[in-house]
Amino acid sequence: MQIDALSRRLIDRFQHGMPLCAEPYRAMAEALGCSEGEVLACLQCLEHNGGLSRIGPVFEHSRAGASTLVALAVPERRLEAVAEQINRLPEVNHNYLREHTYNLWFVLTGPDRAHIDALLRTIAAQTGLKPLDLPMRAAYRIDLGFPIGEAS
């Protein structure tokens, strides 16, 4: 995917935070020296071409509820069906296929640990598979962003 100059500037400037105001896209446009329409068109293009996965906050889950990393060992023939079942749960995010016996990995979030435990029981009952529950013990913060910079 080819990324144009405005997209590069937009990603570099805002991948670590958007303006917290009533009109964030307008504030982004002002910071970039373009129009709000150009910012929105740029974001739509990035999304359409697979260069943008989401726009939204990253929050400290322990302050807003509970979460856990979950893995399932899903037989290959059932993989698409089970992934679809899991994806229907609003508490699920970051669902990935991995090369391992435990091949489906996702994050569950909820208001408290009791809610997570109930979801794990529901998933086990619905899929017939035993979830591997891997709650976080400590967070080691890393910068997930990286500079896009100028095209080479």
UniProtKB/TrEMBL annotation:
EC number, UniProt record: 4.1.1.111
Reaction(s) catalysed (UniProt annotation): siroheme + 2 H(+) = 12,18-didecarboxysiroheme + 2 CO2
Protein's recorded name: siroheme decarboxylase
Organism, as annotated: Stutzerimonas marianensis
Broad enzyme group: lyase
Entry GO MF terms: lyase activity
Keyword Lyase: yes
Residue ranges constituting the Siroheme decarboxylase NirL-like HTH domain according to the UniProt record: 8-50
Record family assignment: Belongs to the Ahb/Nir family.
Metabolic or biological pathway, per its Swiss-Prot or TrEMBL entry: Porphyrin-containing compound metabolism
Known partners and oligomeric status: Probably forms a complex composed of NirD, NirL, NirG and NirH. All proteins are required for the total conversion of siroheme to didecarboxysiroheme.
Function: Involved in heme d1 biosynthesis. Catalyzes the decarboxylation of siroheme into didecarboxysiroheme.
